[in-house]
Amino acid sequence: MATQHHGGVMIYRFIVSMLLIFSMGSIAPAQANPGIDYMRKIEAAFTRIAESVKPTVVSIRVERKKGTASQVPGSPHPNVPLFSSGSGVIIDGQGYILTNNHVISNARRLRVRLWDESGHWGKVVGTDRYTDLALIKINAHRRLPVATLGDSDKVKVGQWSIAVGDPFGITRTFTVGVVSGIGRSGVGVARYEHFIQTDAAINRGNSGGPLVNIDGRVIGINTAIPAPGSGIGFAIPVNMAKDVIKYLRRSGNFPRGYLGVTIQPVSQDMAYLLGLPKAKGALVGSLLRDGPAEGAGIKMGDVIVRLGGTSVVDTAHLQRLVGWTPPGEAVAVEVVRDARRKKFTVKLVRLPEPESTSTPAGNSKVDEPETRKSYGVALENLTDDLKEKGNLQTDGGAYISDVEEGSRAYYDGLREGMVIRGLTYRLPGNGKTPIRVVIEKIEDIEALLKKIPAGSNVLGQVVRGTDRGERTFFTVLHGFKR
Q1: Which residues carry out catalysis?
Q2: What is the pLDDT of residues 287-300, one digit of tens each?
């Protein structure tokens, strides 16, 4: 019995001890978790940003000019309004709203909905399709909350980026990511591209809404995605928008300078044949007849390396430099011609309406061919019949009558109907000076091939006919032979 009693006391004491431990644990303060606390601070920061930015974001419903029955599948009516939607951001308390040009283009009526769900009719103040920006205005009869514009020149890869807008008509959606690239071009949305790339979710309907930083300041205007669900979006830097806004508000458009040239990138193998130390600058393919560049003495094949005191990085950079120079202003232009630098003064004219453009064949991207004995091109001397067939206006050159698909010639961008008008080469031990040869007939090519080592690369000046006249581009012909 004693043993049993002693065991019962021991069990009792153990239970009481455990109860005391649990009781003390329940009233003791929970230990701080630094990781959770840090996450809560981030969470609070995003909440503050959402609360401050969302009232400045609007949804835009666009009724476009009426289409035909063929434009509206399944509709029996010939005049059915076409609707679309997008986003915008208030940049002035009087009702001025910044958005994309493609959001409001061809609009018949605009309906703008604010954060408080009030609707207002909007009017277009100005548009600039070259940057895909537009300024619209509403009359809300009260002062509106305004977004704070930041400094996109200070944006760095890896920084937080928050996209706000109305994807799929779901108002004021807030998505978070990071800046995944800056200075992106070649997206194909606008003539002047210098996009901020982000992985913050951007979808259809986000266009025109703001991209903001961790301080809630607008760093860009959401503009494009490569494809739905791609995880990549692009925004126009707000500093670019600031320049455009001033003119749109004042005159409805943004006047730009125009040099009067078509340009193409300089690749690394081109740089060697052009006598350049690095693959930088913009290669002049064609010149506008009687245009500013031609009048100043710039020629096809020149590489523009400096404009107005600024070194030119690439074609997109030159376009921005020229486009942001007022028409009528004289600028210093420096080019490299035959490995020598030359300086010109060019008085820019106003940029005309853009032509429909296509990628130069010299920039065509196809699979790298296998090494072949034949270069894969057939040439003929240019005749009047071939000129007419190729939609060409000028004489001289070697007409390309056939290109073997998948050959080296095909990879280099040559196509049937083009004409080779010039070749540039460099001889080993001949210093940095490139040698240019004008090609009038096939015999000129044969004579050149006898001078250079077999399998040499040469820079081809190639012409193609278009409905708007001849267009010249340059492309490296790798291991060129007949």
Answers
A1: 102, 132, 207
A2: 888 899 999 999 99
